[in-house]
Amino acid sequence: MKDIYLVHITLPDVFTPKFYALIPPHRNKINELLEQGVIRSYSLDMERKNIWVFIEGISEQEVMDILSTFPIIKEVKVNITELAYFDSAPINFPDLIMN
Questions:
Q1: In sequence order, what are the residues at sequence separation of 6 or more whose Cβ sits closer than 8 angstroms to the Cβ of residue 67?
Q2: Residues in CB range of 96: below 8 A, 6 or more apart
Q3: Which of 45, 55, 91, 98 is deepest in the core (most CB within 10 A)?
Q4: Cα–Cα distance between 69 and 31 in angstroms, integer?
Q5: Are 24 and 16 contacting, i.e. CB atoms less than 8 angstroms apart?
Q6: Which of helix, strand or coil describes residue 2?
Q7: Which domain holds residue 72?
Q8: Positive or negative CA dihedral for 77, 9, 33, 28?
Q9: pLDDT exceeding 90 applies to what percent of the chain?
Q10: φ, ψ of residue 88 in degrees (nearest 5)
Q11: Position 70 in a domain
């Protein structure tokens, strides 16, 4: 059974040109994992210092394996916390109007 892990990523104090170059491929990877349902939520604070990611995985090792695919992973600090539970509001789609 898969659990949900909260991953806190601390971004570097100074964004170098090398780090800026990693952002577009990183966003592509995040979008891919969101579409697959591996990442449940992804948030960045306004100061661009912290990222919080809710990841579904079987173990902390699997979460580490997922994180290792992030293009920015070598430039950031990571803290992983296994959650007892994860609740979220259901996604509501607009009502269909049949014409």
A1: 7, 55, 73, 78, 80
A2: none
A3: 55
A4: 13
A5: no
A6: coil
A7: 3-82
A8: negative
A9: 82
A10: -150, 155
A11: yes
- Could you give the residue ranges of the DSSP H alpha helices within 1-99? 17-36, 60-67
Which among 87, 85, 88, 82 is positioned nearest to 5, based on CA atoms? 82
pLDDT in tens, 64-98: 999 999 999 999 999 999 998 788 777 666 766 77
78 contacts 8 by C-beta, under 8 angstroms: yes
**22: its two tokens:** 């990693």
* Tokens at 17, concatenated: 């040109």
Q: What is the identity of the amino acid at 75?
A: E
Do β-strands 50-57 and 39-44 pair in parallel, antiparallel, or remain unpaired? antiparallel
88 vs 26, higher pLDDT = 26
